[in-house]
Amino acid sequence: MKRGMVAMAAALVMAAGMPAVAQEGGVKTAQPAKAREVAPGVKVERIADLQVGDKAPELKIAEWVKGDPVTSFEKGRVYVVEFWATWCGPCIAGMPHLSELQKEYKSKDVRIIGVNIWDDTTKVAPFMADKGGDEKMQYTVAIEEKIPDTDARRTGWMAKEWMEASGQQGIPSAFIVDQKGFVAWIGHPMTMDEPLKEIVAGEWDIAKAAKKYVDEKRVEVRFSEYMTAIRSGNTAKAYGVAKELIEGPAWDNAQMLNTLAWYIVDPDAKVEPRDAELGLKIAERASELTKHENAMILDTYAWALWFAGQQDKALEVQEKAVALAPANMKEQLSEALERMKKMKSGG
């Protein structure tokens, strides 16, 4: 079932379900390379070429589409560098929110810059003129400078020196550059309200944020190892990683727990051996964290109960999942309920 992948994406961006669109044509993993200036007090492991606490790379822009050009990061000002593309639905959906933030912080020396990457740059002008881009994007808009002698639609300096360098694998992605020119936060733009507020107010602990960023990246790496192991049939390794994750940072991440459990209890997956006890422990925790009110997580919990031999309770939980399901999920979860009933009756 594809729904497990939705949960995985949510977990990986650490944004409680915020959608992220992967780069067309694949993504690249950051490799630590450059020695960078870091903010005072920041002492963390180097896990990427660019990470929270580092001096922000320069802006390499081919065209300033809207707003005054930004030639450098001025001291005393806060900048949000947000990456988008004309083909990216979540990017477009988030533009009004960015516009509201720019309006809110305009008088507080905050500049939001939407940088187009991974795109056919000839589509930007029509998007601005004919598809509501100019109205939606009430902040500075730019197109990155492309790297010579490469596929111009794919390869640009900003994508390489910001996104690829930091290991960001999808858009929209945002980087907040603080008053001293350091990257203070990296993440999904729909989740940056509180960090932006603290950074502007001078209350942001960049050393703490740098450590949190590294810790979260470590979890992402282990989570990816789990996915690779369980898909390839290496359940021994997968279960070992899963146990490590639930004993640490994943224990309070409902979306990540749901995905961990789903790949153990998915009735259509050939998981050998299927650790029903582990699947149930993980799924039950995810359901508890969401107060037993998330239909997708309840569906996972129901199947976990099923394989743990608690069929009557599984049916009860699945019925609740169907009752709580949004319209676009109700049919799928109803089919799962009927499937359970049929299996219970021996059909």
Question: Can you describe this structure?
Answer:
By secondary structure, this protein is an alpha/beta fold. The protein folds into 2 domains: 184 residues, Glutaredoxin (3-Layer(aba) Sandwich), CATH 3.40.30.10; 112 residues, Serine Threonine Protein Phosphatase 5, Tetratricopeptide repeat, CATH 1.25.40. Helix 1 packs antiparallel against helix 9, helix 7 packs parallel to helix 9 and helix 10 packs antiparallel against helix 11. It starts with a helix and ends with a helix. About 6% of the residues have low confidence.
Gross CATH architecture of the largest domain: 3-Layer(aba) Sandwich
Cα shape: elongated
Q: What number is the mean pLDDT?
A: 90
CATH topology of the largest domain: Glutaredoxin
Contiguous uncertain segments of 5+ residues: 4-19, 24-29
Computed structural class? alpha/beta
How many beta-strand runs? 8
Residues in helices, as a percent range: 40-55%
**What is the strand content?**
5-15%
Q: Count of DSSP helices?
A: 13
The CATH homology group name of the largest domain: Glutaredoxin
Overall structural domain count: 2
Distance between the termini: 22 Å
User: Major beta sheet, specifics?
Assistant: 6 strands, mixed
Strands in their spatial order, largest beta sheet: 2-5-4-3-7-8
